[in-house]
Structure formats: structure tokens, C-alpha cells
């Protein structure tokens, strides 16, 4: 009989060569210490302002880390219809195209591609994230003030550029591109008039109480996450922590994606104990359904009630998220 | 170079590799694991003279940074389309390699925090209380995650699995 500790040791064997050495660690540590010293006063302001809002306004306007602290107005996001719309439209800047691609309880996120790129995941250059009202993104480490963007306060937190895109609302941009280009992207951002998020499936059955909390669309396909109602409450009570479904018990994930993991793409629905259900759908895509703690029978029932669009490769055939799920799965408000 | 910095360098040289392994088992991606180790150790550098138990601090910081790595938007988007840890075992005839791949695939199916609990308890040998302190979560959560994690691993790997500390909770 194998010891788990031995198996774990074996699982981390065969590591690739390290990219960093002791000198790199020390250099980064020194930079961190220097930044910390230089911006000590700003860092104190962040802690005070953030803690204040977190205690007083669980789901109020985002805490921009500087006094004056935003007023404690309760802004419970209404989730009917517009909740599943992105909070901004895609846009272009010279050399780049920005496409909304992920919607969560906390934010709308867009992927930045080079102009003319096919939109493959690995070609992503950066991401723009606009936080919903009341969501306070987790900002750790040093904050460095920078020139305002479109007249609003902006600051750097390590390599992420944050700015206030409307009164009390924050957005961020970060990625592989230069700081100047991140600033250009932020400056071109215009909030509002976002399109509905879209999915490549229609879902006919879900276990009672499950709610749609994440919609992700990309070149690779369509991916959604649902959690039980109690999980939604937990996530809504801790905005900005990116809790999503990683730490919420009972996550259900449904994907219609191009298989890239080497797993079989079976012609018939195939369900494995603890391994979820999979079946090939049109255009070489694969439907997969995974649910934490769900029985295989329940997963099979869900999978059988999912109908993928005829050709997931054609985005024009996708459905608005709030049309593709039973009404009972749509959020109607967060208290 | 100060004595303190020399001490820090010695510590990093001795522990960096094993911390990377710990991070890898937690987040499932070697590159993300290295980023987690860099972030954690650079924070430790700043606090070096004030930290009483550098080993415990580093271990905790690395695991938490590795969990954070799994929450990054890009990472999560990529997770939707396949794990960095191989999800399929491709037998190559070498039993050790097969076993390694099977274990990685099994771990990749656990949620990140559950994986962290399993790794801290059964690789690092922490008890329930120490694991709860490291992850800043209740002891009950550690017990539940240990139980669920072991159950899942047994089902994925088969029953030929013994966990020395299982009786400890």
C-alpha cells in the first residue's frame, strides 16, 4: 500500500529548471522594501480607507484607496437582465483590440489582443477589468500615484494600473504590454452600453437553487459556473476577493470548448465517477459538465439537458446568457 | 553583505526548491509556482529580521500565494480549458512516471484550497491546528477538506492509499 506522502513527493519530481535564483529573490525583496519605504504614507491611507469601507459598507461603492472615503450608500446590484450584460463595450486602440470575455459577480473583464490576432487564449496581451458597484478589489502591496486618467485618480499597484472610471468605481488593466500601453488602454476605456454576455449552449435542467455566477467566452469556447444560492450569498458578502467558485462548495461548471487537454472527445455521453461528463458536440467542440459533490447520475441528468449551439465556432449563433438558462438560475438581486 | 542578508540567502538557497514543489502541488503549474515562491520570499526578505520562524512563514506565504495564483483572471480562464497538471495519464512503461502523472492528475481534480490542505498535512506533515493557522481557516474546515480530499483521491487513484495522519483528526 502506498503512502500518500510518498506519492506527493513523487508528484513534484521531475521539475523544470528554475527561472529564478537566490539573487533574483534578493533583488525583488530589495525593490519591494524600497517601494514600501518610499510610499509608506500612501500605504497607510490604503489600509485605513479600505478597512473603513469594508466594515461599514459590505456592498457599497468601491473603496478607492484614498480619503475621502466613499459615502456608505447601499448599492445592491440588480441582477435582472443587465446583470448579465458587460459593463462596457469592446474597443480598439492603435495596435490592440479589447473584447469583453468574462462576467462575474465582481466584475466585467475584457481580453486585450494585438490587432489582427486570431483571439487564441495564448495570444492575450493584457486584460481590462471593471469592477461592479460596491466591489472593492483586493489591493496588496504598495500603491504609487500616477497622472489622472480622463480626469480621475489613477495609481499603480505593482504592475497593475488602477483608475477610477466613474465616481467610486474602479477598473484595472495589466498584462504583458508596456506601462505606456496600459495607460493608453485605460484612457480609451468608456463605461456603459455593454453587450449581453453570451453562451454556446442552452441549459434545460439544473439542481434546485443553483445560480449562474460566471460567464466566460473566448476563441476556445463557452464556459459558465454556477453555485448554490448559499454560495452566491457568501461571494456577494465578500466582494473583491475573487472567491468565485474555487472556494465555494458545490461548484457546477459547464463548458462547450475545443478540447485541448488530450482527453477523449466521446461521441456518446460519458460520465466518470468524480470525473464529470463529456460528449462531443458540433464543430469538434466538447461539452463537459463537472460538479463538485454531485452524483454521477445528477451530472448525467444536467449534461443530457444541455444543448450546444450547432456550431460553437460561429459566435453569431450563441445565445444571450439570460436566455440560455432557466429563469430560476438567474440572479434577481444580492442582499 | 550584512549578516542578516547572508542568513537570508542561505535560507533561500536551502528552501527554494522544496517551496517550489509545495507551490506546484498547490497550484498545478510550475511557472505559477515559481511566481508564488518569488512573491512569498521577497516579502519574507522585507520582514526577515522580525520573523521568528522563517520556515513556517515561508511555507504559509508560498501556499497562500499559490492559491492566489489559481484565482488570477488569466489563470482561471485557462483552467476552463484544461489544467496545467496533466488530466490524462499517458503510460510510458515506467511505473514511477505513471505514478507521478496519476497523482498529478488526481490532485488537479481537487479544488485549490482542498489541495493545499492535503499537501500541507501529508507532504509537510502539519497537524490540523497548524494547517488551519497556515491557511487562516477554521480547524473544522481543515478536517472537512482533509476528509473530502482523501476520499476523492482514493476514488480517483483506487483504494491503495494510506494516509499516516488520517487518524489524527
UniProtKB/TrEMBL annotation, chain A:
Residue intervals passing through the bilayer: 38-57
Alphabetical keyword list: Membrane, Transmembrane, Transmembrane helix
Name of the protein in question: Uncharacterized protein
Organism: Actinoplanes cyaneus
From TrEMBL, chain B:
One GO molecular-function entry: sigma factor activity
KW Transcription (keyword) present: yes
Domain RNA polymerase sigma-70 region: 17-76
SUPFAM superfamilies reported in the protein's UniProt record: Sigma2 domain of RNA polymerase sigma factors (SSF88946), Sigma3 and sigma4 domains of RNA polymerase sigma factors (SSF88659)
GO biological process terms held by the UniProt record: DNA-templated transcription initiation
UniProt-listed Gene3D superfamilies: 1.10.1740.10, Winged helix-like DNA-binding domain superfamily/Winged helix DNA-binding domain (1.10.10.10)
Domain RNA polymerase sigma factor 70 region 4 type: 101-153
Domain of life: Bacteria
Leader sequence residues: none
Record-linked InterPro entries: RNA_pol_sigma-70-like, RNA_pol_sigma-70_dom, RNA_pol_sigma-E_actinobac, RNA_pol_sigma70_r2, RNA_pol_sigma70_r4_t2, RNA_pol_sigma_r2, RNA_pol_sigma_r3/r4-like, WH-like_DNA-bd_sf
UniProt keyword annotation of DNA-binding present: yes
Protein name listed in UniProt: RNA polymerase sigma24 factor
Keywords of this entry: DNA-binding, Sigma factor, Transcription, Transcription regulation
Recorded family membership: Belongs to the sigma-70 factor family. ECF subfamily.
